[in-house]
Amino acid sequence: MLADLPDETEEVIGDRGYDSNKIRQSLADRNITACIPPKKNRKSKPPYNWHLYKKRHLIENMFAKLKDWRRVATRYDRCAHTFMSAIYIAASFIFYLKE
What we know:
two-stranded parallel sheet; about 100 residues; single chain; 2 strands; elongated; mainly alpha
């Protein structure tokens, strides 16, 4: 589980779906801090950094806004550099419209 994480990883931010003892132990063995909120039905609720978890929500919102752009959501561009250019343009417009 989560074996493809880079060696420099210090923290993992995940949602409640990743709240299991096996995942938490795997991360602890690699000295990685888990920022995963506990499930509602969990008896022993481990602590997590709520402020760090809140930043994850902001990133998810940005991806949701990018998916509103049809060209980005359906990946019309065949070349990776053209696709990244479309993402940059869409992100710029989203940022501009937010102001």
